[in-house]
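Reminder to self: tokens first, then the designed residues, so the page reads top to bottom the way the pipeline ran.
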């Protein structure tokens, strides 16, 4: 085969491959852009019209079994009846928000759902995202008078996170919630 013929075949194959690749890439980019727009629209709709809570535990990420939710809800209900402090837990799949807006969304949920009594600001919202590997505890102003950000961080680091790292989200939530309640009860004495 002559050098000229080899160059022509190589050029033809290269052109064919680039055309095929470029065509597929363009199609994939259009599909990705369309999916991103749909996802962005969905997230904005969720932000604008948050669903009403169904109890103290709202698991939008599917981290807990039904029985787990009942146990956590019962613990929170008993604590509220003893102290008046409201604790809500929300888990958020990555479909509901971006990683950068996760903290903002948990604060919005706390405010929109009215976690805590009016005038007392004694609510706590625990937001968890397995997908983003994030947890956020939003303490109302009344709770901030009882426990510091440092104490809250210690509970997250020592009681939630070790279990979460093992994929045991219920165990971590139960342990962290129990420690948070224990700390608040000692502060209320």
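Designed residues (189 positions):
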């Amino acid at each position: 085969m002559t050098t000229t013929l080899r160059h022509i075949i190589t050029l033809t194959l290269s052109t064919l491959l680039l055309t095929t690749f470029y065509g597929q890439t363009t199609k994939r980019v259009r599909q990705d852009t369309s999916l991103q727009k749909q996802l962005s629209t969905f997230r904005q709709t969720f932000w604008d019209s948050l669903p009403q809570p169904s109890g103290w535990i709202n698991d939008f990420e599917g981290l807990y079994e039904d029985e787990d939710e009942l146990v956590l809800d019962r613990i929170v209900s008993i604590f509220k009846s003893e102290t008046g402090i409201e604790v809500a837990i929300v888990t958020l799949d990555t479909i509901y928000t971006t990683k950068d807006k996760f903290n903002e969304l948990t604060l919005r949920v706390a405010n929109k759902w009215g976690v805590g009594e009016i005038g007392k600001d004694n609510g706590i919202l625990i937001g968890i995202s397995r997908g983003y590997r994030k947890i956020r505890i939003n303490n109302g102003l009344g709770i901030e008078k009882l426990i510091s950000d440092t104490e809250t961080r210690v509970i997250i680091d020592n009681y939630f996170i070790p279990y979460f790292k093992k994929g045991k989200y219920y165990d971590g939530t139960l342990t962290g919630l129990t420690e948070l309640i224990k700390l608040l009860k000692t502060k209320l004495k």
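Residues 57-188 form a domain with the Diaminopimelate Epimerase; Chain A, domain 1 fold (CATH 3.10.310.50).
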